[in-house]
Amino acid sequence: MSELLNRRLRLLGERANLTLLEHCLHGIERECLRVTAQGRLAQTPHPEALGAALTHEQITTDYSESLLEFITPALEDPTQTLQSLEKIHRFAYTKLGNEFLWSPSMPCPLPAEEDIPIAYYGTSNIGQLKYVYRQGLALRYGRTMQCIAGIHYNFSLPEQLWPLLREAEGAVQTDRDYQSSAYIGLIRNFRRYSWLLMYLFGASPALDAGFLRGRSHQLEQLDADTLYLPYATSLRMSDLGYQSNAQAGLTPCYNDLPSYTDSLRKAVATPYAPYVQIGTHKDGEWVQLNTNILQIENEYYSNIRPKRVTYTGERPIQALMARGVQYVEVRCLDINPFLPTGIDLPEARFMDAFLLYCALHDSPLLETAECGGATNNFLSVVKEGRKPGLQLQRDGQPVELKQWASELLDQIAPLASLLDQSHGSDEHAKALAAQRAKVSDPSLTPSAQVLASMAEHKESFAQFSLRQSQAHAEFFRSQALSTEEQAKFEEMARRSIAEQAELEQTEVGDFDTFVGSYQASILAISN
Q1: CA separation (Å) from 453 to 119, 328, 337, 458?
Q2: How confident is the model at residue 243 (pLDDT cuts 50, 70, 90)?
Q3: How far lies 299's CA from each of 95, 247, 404, in Å?
Q4: pLDDT exceeds 50 at position 524
Q5: Cα separation of 459 and 463, whole Å?
Q6: HEC states along 349-380?
Q7: Burial of 113 per CB tally in 10 Å (0-12, 13-18, 19+)
Q8: Angle, to 10 degrees, between the axis of helix 175-193 and the axis of helix 257-269?
């Protein structure tokens, strides 16, 4: 273990500092498709009884009108975060009629590309902006690709922790800059080691054959309706034959916050020839927000993002530049189709230990070769992570996945132990032990279990997924929310609808002007 990590562990293990780690914050966003009783994409509008997707803080839509997104508050205890997620699911099921929430990350059999409904947010300028942005995504990447769902895990370390570390290390930066550079350091380590998460939690080794729309691919045929790779962990995170040529040259550097925000700022302001050819309007209607590499910064696909809560009307990049990094958003986790909410407490506990390790361990700058190596390791594991004897590259040398995974878990163990000391439990150690078991025995991984379950029941991917969706629906419907909680959700739904209506009635200024000033807001930022 490195000297720096040792020193930091000792400091946080001191009695005066031990309770600090109780104040990490955890938030979860879970996306899921609404499907019919036959396991087809629901073509119905977003259920009004769930509230307005534009203004509801816990229930919204992602790309499609059929793609729900459930958002928990950021809470100190991940047990409560998961309870919050479960309650949102229970409430949703009281309003879904005969529809189901699709259990895995990869989508159900989809209708024709043009029949996948884009999420609609009403007539306000911000509502229209969200709609046009999604039309742009359809033009650029196709609608099918946007129907993949995932889990986003939001995590922050307590604000009081950073000044403590900064002082102990005699860093000359301000508290804010030290905190931002520490989070960027966490992200660099995440790039190095996130292949491990794909092995442990990847749960998408197979998909519906129609998903690829007849385009060329390297997948194998499992049955008439299912494509897969025998050792894949997460086809969701593989390239799947989809390449964003526009984003190919965009590799925001995680060497410091300014270089990261600068590369995104440039991408949002730099025209991309094929998009320029399409233009922003067709037959007088908006079809994309602009013709640049990215329409907005959120279009950049990455496995993890530095984040800061934004003020009303503020763009994510403005918030980061003005006030620094506040938390990270992990975006590469598959939905586990065996779990009703797609994620459970042992996974959350392990994520905390893993992210704490990434935050406190030495994190040298990523050289170009190492950056490419990290990407290659990640792609190897998503496509063939369970392959016996699979080798990854570490410091330019081959190393067996099993060996490196075991060594990483050994290094994460003291962090799990520190979290347990802080919380007065052994939950993190137990979560770590569950991951060790998966490294020893690949059949325990979710990806292996998906294939095993399909084989046992002689099912296609779609049949397996629908069966799981039905089981989860039963789980949520079998236990109603308390009258008080149900009423609270009903009130949130009503309030969100009223807020959207008010926004639409009181708005001044037309949409074209609104888009213009929205674009200008990013161009106005100078380093």
Answers
A1: 33, 34, 11, 8
A2: low
A3: 31, 9, 33
A4: yes
A5: 6
A6: HHHHHHHHHHHHCCCCCCCHHHHHHHHHHHHH
A7: exposed
A8: 80
On whether the CB atoms of residues 504 and 122 are closer than 8 A, the answer is yes
Which residues are registered as beta bridge partners of 330?
Answer: 153, 304
Bridge partners, residue 307, by sequence? 327
Across 24-51, average pLDDT: 98
pLDDT tops 90 at residue 513? yes
pLDDT exceeds 50 at position 128: yes
Q: What is the pLDDT of residues 141-176, one digit of tens each?
A: 999 999 999 999 999 999 999 999 999 999 999 999
pLDDT averaged over the chain?
Answer: 95
Question: Considering only the top CATH level, what class is 3-523?
Answer: alpha beta
Task: Give residue-wise pLDDT tens across range 468-500.
Answer: 999 999 999 999 999 999 999 999 999 999 999
Q: In 3-state terms, what secondary structure has residue 163?
A: helix
Q: How far apart are CA 362 and CA 358, in angstroms?
A: 8
What is the average pLDDT across 30-35? 98
Query: In this structure, are residues 20 and 160 in contact, taking their beta carbons and an 8 Å threshold?
Result: yes
Strands 25-35 and 151-156: antiparallel
For the chain, the distance separating the N- and C-terminal CA atoms, rounded to the nearest angstrom, is 38
Phi-psi group of 104: left, alpha or beta (phi > 0 → left; psi -120 to 50 → alpha; rest → beta): beta
Asked if 251 and 267 touch (Cβ cutoff 8 Å), the reply is: no
* Rounded CA Rg of the chain: 23
- Per cent of the chain over pLDDT 90 is 91
Q: Which residue has the tokens 């379950």?
A: 453
Q: Would you list the DSSP string of 375-415?
A: HHHHHHHHHHTTSTT-EEEETTEEEEHHHHHHHHHHHHHHH
Tokens of 255: 């060497």
Of 248, 197, 507, give the one whose Cα is nearest residue 378: 197
Domain ranges of the chain: 3-523
Q: Do 356 and 419 meet the contact criterion of CB atoms below 8 Å apart?
A: yes
Q: How far apart are CA 135 and CA 44, in angstroms?
A: 19
Distance in angstroms (rounded) separating the CA atoms of residues 299 and 3: 39
